[in-house]
UniProtKB/TrEMBL annotation:
The keyword Transferase applies. The keyword Methyltransferase applies. Keywords: Methyltransferase, Transferase. Pfam families: Methyltransf_13, Methyltransf_14, Methyltransf_23. Gene3D superfamilies: 6.10.250.3100, Methyltransferase, zinc-binding domain, NAD(P)-binding Rossmann-like Domain, Vaccinia Virus protein VP39. Residues 9-70 form the Methyltransferase putative zinc binding domain. It comes from the Bacteria. This is SAM-dependent methyltransferase. One of its GO terms (molecular function) is methyltransferase activity. GO terms for biological process: methylation. InterPro entries: Methyltransf_Zn-bd_dom_put, Methyltransf_Zn-bd_dom_put_sf, MeTrfase_14, SAM-dependent_MTases_sf. Residues 249-408 form the C-methyltransferase domain.
Length: 414
């Protein structure tokens, strides 16, 4: 148990006293460096996740302001083929299921570069993106997707309603975890939603994070980590009811919650909601002790990753990385992996080329670099996309190269 200087839980206000996992000090995971920044001071912050003893929300303190993380953002959703396909399948499903028509307004919170709303625009449907990162929002605007460069909360929602906009569908894909002011954000959704509208939220499932040892999905821009029970509790506090849930393979195991106004009786609660709530209760997610056992599991994984890399280097093998995702930066900084163990990494996103990873200063190159240097091992940092990457990199077997994933345990893919 560690004291957190009495910092209050962002949902219920209870002082945070119990460690979920302590990943040491780490820089913000998307703060890539240019060559001329390498000799400058770099900001590191505690990456220490706590669990609230009252509401059981797993969370980080807000060490880094959302403005400093998201105003100029390095993540563009459209560079992942599988994520684009996921967004397209989602749009087809919800349009049909909820009978959305040409006058149904879809609002996406944290709409990134328009990777999802583009599918609604293709059908001639009205959309609005709300995205705090101006550089990313510009890409969406180029695709013809109207985008408001703002952080979303009760204030933005109230302004939109006054301007005559209310949503038939509110989409939040991988944003709920990124919100420091959880109460304002949730209340904002309640305000913006039409009386019979639907909210869908996708976020990594804490139950899967723990079972799959996915500690690297903890980083400063993820302020909260939700079990199904806790997410339902947060929404319920603001008059929103979860009426359905889907378990998804994305990001190592995510949930998609479907919510409505509590007073909207037109959408009954499904058996899936009851079944998942019961499963979490049986797995101990209403007990503090379940959460507090995770930290030791994380330390064991760190030792295994380092043992593999040290052994490979001692055998004279070369190791490069694939991808430069936020999760990779958490893993590399926590494990203390630098260019002594990982020569470089590659990424498809040109925004990152020629830059260096925060903290570890590992250089980022285009994927062609792998072909030039022919490493013995390629460590897949976005392990959640390992199947997509495996097919993209099938040619590394031509020189006997092997792919490695670090999570849930180090595994050399055959």
């Amino acid at each position: 148990m560690h004291a957190a200087n009495g910092a209050p839980c962002r949902f219920c206000g209870t002082p945070l006293r119990h460690t979920f996992t302590d990943l040491g000090m780490s820089p913000p995971c998307e703060s890539f460096l240019s060559a001329d920044q390498l000799n400058h001071m770099e900001a590191f912050y505690p990456l220490h996740a706590f669990v609230c003893e009252e509401c059981l929300l797993v969370q980080l303190q807000e060490y880094v302001s959302p403005e400093s993380i998201f105003t100029e953002y390095a993540y563009f959703s459209s560079y992942s083929d599988s994520w684009l396909a996921h967004a397209k399948a989602y749009s087809d499903e919800v349009i049909e299921r909820f009978d959305l028509g040409l006058d149904s307004l879809t609002v996406e919170l944290a709409s990134n570069d328009g990777y999802l709303l583009r599918w609604f625009v293709e059908r001639g449907m009205p959309v609005l993106g709300i995205e705090p990162a101006a550089n990313v929002a510009r890409q969406a605007e180029k695709r013809g997707i109207p985008t408001l460069v703002r952080f979303f909360g009760r204030e933005t929602a109230t302004e939109l309603v006054k301007a005559g906009k209310r949503a038939d569908l509110i989409v939040g894909n991988n944003v709920f975890a990124h919100v420091p002011d959880l109460c304002s954000f949730t209340e904002g959704m309640k305000i913006l939603l039409k009386p019979h509208g639907v909210i869908t939220l996708e976020f990594p499932h804490l139950m899967r994070l723990m079972a799959g040892n996915q500690f690297d999905t903890i980083y400063h821009e993820h302020f909260s980590y939700f079990s199904f029970l806790t997410a339902c509790r947060v929404l319920g506090q603001f008059g929103l009811t979860v009426f359905d849930v889907k378990e998804l393979p994305t990001h190592g195991g995510s949930l998609r919650l479907y919510a409505r106004h509590a007073e909207d009786g037109s959408r009954p609660v499904t058996e899936r909601v009851r079944e998942l709530a019961e499963r979490e209760m049986n797995a101990g997610f209403t007990r503090l002790s379940t959460y507090r056992s995770f930290d030791e599991q994380v330390k064991r994984t760190k030792r295994k990753i380092l043992a593999f890399l040290i052994e490979a280097r001692q055998a004279g093998k070369t190791v490069a990385g694939y991808g430069a995702p936020g999760k990779g930066n958490t893993l590399l900084n926590y494990c203390g992996i630098r260019t002594d163990l990982l020569d470089y990494t590659v990424d498809r996103n040109p925004y990152k080329h020629g830059k260096f990873l925060p903290g570890t200063h590992i250089p980022v190159f285009p994927p062609e670099k792998l072909f030039e240097t022919k490493p013995d091992y390629v460590l897949i940092l976005p392990w959640n996309l390992k199947d997509e990457i495996r097919s993209q990199l099938a040619w590394i077997h031509d020189w006997g190269g092997k792919l490695v994933v670090p999570i849930p345990d180090v595994e050399v893919l055959e």
